[in-house]
Amino acid sequence: MPLIKSISGIRGTIGGKPGDTLSPLDVVKFTAAYGTWLLQQHPASKKVVIGRDGRISGELIQRLVISTLNALGIDVIDLDLSTTPTVEMAVTFEKAAGGIILTASHNPKEWNALKLLNSAGEFISAADGAKILELAANDEYNFVQVDRLGGYTRNTTALDQHIEAVVNYPLVDVAAIKKAKFKIVIDAINSTGAIAVPALLKALGVKDVVVLNGEVNGKFAHNPEPLPQHLSELCNEVNKQGADLGIAVDPDVDRLCFVCEDGSLFGEEYTLVAVADYVLQHRKGNTVSNMSSTRALKDVTTKHGGEYTPSAVGEVNVVNKMKATHAVIGGEGNGGIIVPDLHYGRDALIGIALFLTSLAQSKKSVKQLRGSYPDYFISKNKIELEGGFDVKKIFDQISTKYKNNPINTEDGLKIEFDSDWVHLRTSNTEPIIRIYAESSFETTAENIARRLMQDIRESM
């Protein structure tokens, strides 16, 4: 089973040989390298925030990380069960040198990861990540003597601070949400969404809430990635309960998707589109999403007089592009919402609050809101990689085949076919090639994806 080192952190499966998986030795090694890098960057600040999702391996990884940081002389502020955006915000709340989030995000229960943050509570850059990997490869870290060991503090208020910041965000209308008297079903996927999302809804004045998979035990009731094929239970329950909408989050609560009142899916690609549409009605400006995301965001941005810019896939790449273009809203088509004047990180909680505000103020149903946006279809596929494949060679061969089409190689390979497109790229989080194709027609998108998957297989 794999160990993956990328801008999305140090990620791997639990169990197996060191160097091949996220073994205890690897956790200590990479935590020590990160801590050493932080001390080099911030010699006067020896404070790191950590938090974890509800995974089975979470407590084990948590203990290893705390002890390793303490052994470097670093003070740990432990949020324990938390969310990725909460840890990001807590880094700034605590004026810490950095943070580590213990989560493998959408990956199945066998996985865990160390997601590494800088002093701004943002994911570290690729260059900084490379320095940390170099430190780890060369064992370049020194542990302190016994009288200089770091301290430990438990923080139980960070989620409350996060929710308070969301509730007080200028574009969140708590009075309108409360007046709407929404009935909402949540799929919390047996992780910390079961803690955070109900607490947020309560703060927003939503009283009628049904929680599915609400026991925080890491034994995910279904594949934790919030994709259509995994959300049938939520769709059925929305219908059964006569609810106004359903909400699904991933295990670390940085991705978000909605279910309409009739049990149909709003579409994870349209989470960002809907939230951006609401924000742009009140704040004129630019938007960013990664190049695997729907072009509907570009349509909405243009309608409001702004400029849309695509970025490479990966939250840090989206954030960098947002900063460069002064975007007022951005994110990823996987349901990740980034509201820059709250914090530069994907955050399902602010996404929920803004979406509910939009619904409450417009007095539209979720289905009516979805109907106000163009229908584009993205076919999302993947091919698993085994050792020995030269991905660059594969992409070069495909580029040659489609040399007469517009091609973008900023992140993998994106090919345009008139108004349709396909994007091929290796994943930051799994040993796979992702193949995303979009068209105004579902069958066309699927046919483009199938054609390119065949091209990949023929090039292997």
Could you please describe the fold and organization of this structure?
The strands form 4 sheets. The protein has a 7-stranded mixed beta sheet with strand order 1-2-6-5-3-4-7, sandwiched between helices. Strands 16-20-19-18-17 form a 5-stranded antiparallel beta sheet. A 4-stranded mixed beta sheet has the order 9-8-10-11, sandwiched between helices. Helices cover 38% and strands 23% of the residues. The longest helix has 18 residues, at 24-41. The model has no long low-confidence stretch (mean pLDDT 95). The protein has 3 domains: 3-158, 3-Layer(aba) Sandwich (Alpha-D-Glucose-1,6-Bisphosphate, Chain A, domain 3), CATH 3.40.120; 172-371, Alpha-D-Glucose-1,6-Bisphosphate, Chain A, domain 3 (3-Layer(aba) Sandwich), CATH 3.40.120.10; 377-459, TATA-Binding Protein (2-Layer Sandwich). Helix 2 links the parallel strand 3 (47-52) and strand 4. It is of the alpha/beta class and 460 residues long. It has helices at residues 24-41, 58-71, 84-93, 126-137, 158-167, 174-180, 193-203, 232-241, 269-282, 296-303, 315-325, 348-362, 366-371, 391-401, 442-459; strands at 3-6, 9-13, 47-52, 75-81, 98-102, 111-117, 152-154, 183-187, 208-212, 245-249, 256-259, 286-290, 308-311, 327-332, 336-338, 377-384, 407-408, 413-417, 420-426, 432-439. The radius of gyration is 22 Å and the shape is globular.
